[in-house]
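User:
Care to share a sequence and structure tokens?

Assistant:
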Amino acid sequence: MSAGAIAGAAAAPTAQAQPSAGPAPGVAPAAAAPAPAGYEFLKPAEAAFVEAVANHMIPADELTPGGVDLGVALYVDRALAGGWGKGERLYVQGPWAQGTANQGYQLALTPAELYRAGVAQSNAYCRKTWGRSFDRLSDNQKEDFLQGLSRGQVALPGGLPAAAFFDIVYQTVMEGMFADPIYGGNRGKAAWKMIGFPGVMANNAANARAYRDGRRLQAKPLSIADMS
């Protein structure tokens, strides 16, 4: 996989830590299955961007389906529509000075506002550079854009910090891949099965000791919904 794919993107530098969109209070869980029709937050152009990013970072292979089929875009939408996206647990009173890398998230935008502005400015950059929006770029062009975004080398036309936007996009895509399926992503627990993660059962430490010899753990993971 490339920097658009999981391994490469994981190696990309991050400039600012983002508040986690994981299964925290204020993020409304999505139904485990079937997925609700339609998006709650994402507008059509934004949905096309998120779906294109999800499928580029998580291409379908013999281990998992592609990002959209895995439910990643749905997870991102539900996170942005909920309390996390609205910044309910963020301090938003300012002052808004330029922070350092170790000071965490410093922008005067909620995660949803950052996502919305970032998608609009990213598509504007792509149209100016390649004549089309991000979702219509070739795989190589998508890769070039995401690599530049991750390194802060893309000058987004609205002045949004490129690396900060990439950080939150990458974070939410990875959360959508590996979070509990009740939040909309990791459909069919495919990502957990890929890495041998047992799910919500508190026995992973015992498994780690038992499989220290390098054998692959063939786990049948349990989700929150399975325990209810």
